[in-house]
Every structure is written in C-alpha cells, then in structure tokens.
Amino acid sequence: MRTYDVFPEPVGEYTVGRTQMDLEYTASDHSTRELTAFVYYPADSSEGKTTSAYMFPEVYGLLKDQPLVTEDIFTIDFKTRCYDDLALSAKDKRYPVLFYVCGGGGSPEWGTVLCTDLASKGYVVVSIGHPNSTMYKRTDGRLYNVSKEFSDVLMEFSQDPEMLALAGKMEMRPDDETAIAMCRKVLALPVLAKLTEYSELQAEDVRHVADYLYQLDSGELNSIFKDRLLLDTGMGIAGHSYGGLTTAMVCRDDKRFACGVGLDSGAFGLQDSDLKTPFLLLYNEPNYNMNAIIGANNSRETYYFSVDRVGHLDYCDIVFTSVNEKLRGERDAMEMRNLITDYTANFCDHYILQKAASVEGLAYDGVDLIRKTQSK
C-alpha cells in the first residue's frame, strides 16, 4: 500500500479557502444542537498563508473513546491543500453551494479531499459536525465526541442476528426485483428505528445550516458570502455511508436541493420515500441490496454505479490517510479520488449549473452503470 503525507493537488483552477463556523438551534425533538461547519470555497490566492491543519489532535484523540474503534485506522499527519480564512474569489459574482455529510462516527474533516476538489472547481462546500453521531471541535474550543448511545445503536445494528442473516443471503449484482425485495426486508428490521432517528436529526442540521447560508447571502449576517452565493438554481449534497442516508432525507424534504450523491450508502428510513430529486449512488457490491428502494420510488432520475475493487472507507479521506491495509480496497488512492470527484462534480454541474455534462460519459475500469431510472 502506497503511503502519503500530503493530499493531492486540487483538480480545479481556484485556490481553496476554508473557514469554520459555529451554530446552534433547537431541533424538532426539543434538543439544543450545537454544530460546527467547515466551509471550503474558491479563492484567488493563498495570500502567503500556510495550509490549513487537517484535523485537530484533540478530535483525533476522541477516537480512543469510541467502542467500535479497536485498532489504528488513519493518521492526521497530513498536509492539506486549503488555507484558512482567505478572501472569496473575485472571478465570478456568485458560487453554487454543495454540502458534504461524513459517515457515522466520523468527523467533518474526513471529506477534505473531495470538499477541496469541489471548491477548486468553483463550489462553496459545507461539511457539518453533527452532535452525537460525529466528533468535532468547535471554534469556541469545546470538543464533541460520538455519544455512547449512538455507538451502542451502531453496535447493535452490526451484531443484529436478523441483519446478519439477510446479509448472508445478499446476491452480488442482483436483478432489480431481487434487490428491491431484499432492500424492503432490511428496511423493515426494528433495529433500524433508532439509527433512522439520528439521521433525521442530521438532516435537520443540514437544513438549518442551509437557512444560515441564505442569511449570509442576504447580508442579514455579516460574512464574505454576502451576495456571493448562487442559490436560485438549487444546492447539492453528497454523503458517505451513514451520511448518505442524511443526504437522501435532505433531498426528500427540502426543495432547495437540486441533486444528491450517496457514496456507498443505504436507504434506512426511506421505505416509501419519493426523493423527487435526481440522485446518484456509487457503491461496491452487494450494496445494491441496501439501497435499491431509492430508485424504485424516486420520480426523478436515479443512477446506480457499481465500483469494483474498493473498500467501504475508500470513499473518504482514509483512501489516503489509512494506516491499516485491511481497510483499503485494491484501487490506487489517486484513481479512487479522481473517480469520486469526477462523478460528484459532473452530476452537480449538470443538475445545478445546467451544464451538458453526463455521468454516463465517464469511463473508469470496473465502474458499471447498473441501473438508471427515468423521470416518472
């Protein structure tokens, strides 16, 4: 396994700025949600600054308190390709907006490579630290770890006898009817109820931060983003693993979002959901069995791309930062990065910016379009 100590150069023409914001609000369950958000955005110059730190050491230290983490997973000794608190680029008047949702138990910094790439191509990209289900440090210095309750729910799911029995029956490359039937069985499991509740709260977090961006753009709140965000054409959102559930829920519930991307994610809580939003899924088999219901219900286009020779964590920064070969797939880290960036950017360019780009025209060895549903 090749090792790295620096993330790859961004694919786009812009230098990438990064800033962090703390927010808080009262959620539908009456809890106070204290969030943080990393915002990556296009800039014209590094202004002579050194690159942003990858992850706070205190956040990395929180991993030791998570019961599901029993061995070293990744390192944070990495040089990023973004810079803190730069001026927003003057090249364009407004910039489109994307959100990124990390996997459960992860950190908002886990998508730094993808967020930096997309910002270098002209997007403002927001990655949120979600209470209970992720770990992060706010700008006020307070640390938030994954809660024991959330860890227990994840552990219960991973060990659930009914889920394990169904997993043993999942076919590789199943036909649509078989995959949809299996997906319905999985989604009916009682063990998923609490996981779905956490994901619904994460979706509320995203919608709240989206509200906040509208306030920044209007000038109601002072920031570099006043009159600079392209919001009229809709926002996009991408999520990895458990974050993909949140991504789909946001698309289902908020018409301000024009498209969504799920990275090796499932469909918990989406049994009868019409997303009414173009959606793309990149996944490794047999995960079609876990998300086939999304395309079956969606009244807009849904793309399923099967990706071979990859591990589940290859869809986030761990493709570069991993210190454990058992967690990696067989694809080269740079190839996997290019693949994810290309599909995500191409999809969002088409549905947000109305460009002629088409994900069907991308060509990567071992990446197959398994299913595409048309608008109904």
From TrEMBL:
Alphabetical keyword list: Hydrolase, Lipid degradation, Lipid metabolism
Name of the protein in question: Choline esterase
SUPFAM superfamilies associated with the record: alpha/beta-Hydrolases
Database matches in Gene3D superfamilies: alpha/beta hydrolase (3.40.50.1820)
Organism: Paenibacillus tritici
